[in-house]
User: Fold Omega-amidase from Spironucleus salmonicida.
Amino acid sequence: MFIIPQTFFTGYQIDPAYLAEVPNGQTSIFLHNSAKQLQTSIICGLVTVEKSQYEIRSYAFPNILQIKSIPFRVSNDEKYKRIEFFAERQHFFIAQNRLILICCDVRRSITMYSDQKVESIVYIGNWPPLPQAIWKIMLQAKQLENDCCVLGCCRIDDLGVQNDIVYYKPNNKSEVSCKECNEGFYIFK
Assistant:
């Protein structure tokens, strides 16, 4: 399985009209064909437009299933409004459905949306370079909050492409870094 960071192919911009494509557009077709050719699954987030509404949706390929599970900014809670980076709510539609527990927004609480205990959560993101430490802390907090495995995959969008994959396993405080292997993994067991 390949997990590609949110908006990996386009980078994140606050002008969704510039980046958006229809749900089964060129990028979706490319990812579908790549997943079939590699005989694997590919999960990623794409900026889509439907009925003049823009969303960042997650998809699983080769089946082209929409898997966005946690609606982006569905809550009116002031706490979440304050940590919005680029006034996204003025540009992106608030999705209303969720199908599988894969999330594009580490700032959201999983327990707020799910009455079932989850075994693992995958977060995919695209953050600016400065709050990366915050992103990693939030992933650790999500692991503690939900007592489950948490995987985060984030593209650091700073004109250069840097990718960071962080993995936290429950019930262990030690960090094993595989940076020496140039794989970019942080493992908490």
Remarks:
- The chain has one domain: 2-188.
- Residues 2-188 form a domain with the Nitrilase/N-carbamoyl-D-aminoacid amidohydrolase fold (CATH 3.60.110.10).
